[in-house]
Amino acid sequence: MRVLIQQPPKGLEAPRYVSISLLQDLLGGWTLMRESGLIGGKSQLKREQILDTEQAIEAFETARAVHFKKGFQVVFIQGATEPKTNL
Question: What gap in Å lies between CA 59 and CA 67, rounded to an integer?
């Protein structure tokens, strides 16, 4: 699953973006990757290893919900449904 979200631009500064990906590894575990930064600028990448499928999906949806509450909007979505409304 992957989702790319960004904040609407404010004035002349570049908008912030966040890319959240959930990838299964060869041993059945999961890697949650979060890349964030300014478009056209430096970015930061964080990785988290998760063993359980349900916990991995919950972590993905929680990370996505946190940024939606901050005003980020979906630009691209792949392999995931719309966010759950109960988060």
Answer: 13
Q: Is 45 exposed, middle or buried (0-12, 13-18, 19+ CB in 10 A)?
A: exposed
Nearest to 2 by CA among 62, 75, 80: 80
- Asked if residues 5 and 18 have their Cβ atoms less than 8 Å apart, the reply is yes
Confidence class of residue 80 from pLDDT cuts 50, 70 and 90? low
Q: What is the pLDDT of residues 46-70, one digit of tens each?
A: 999 999 999 999 999 999 999 999 9
Question: What are the strands, taking DSSP E only, across the chain?
Answer: 2-6, 16-24, 30-38, 43-50, 73-78
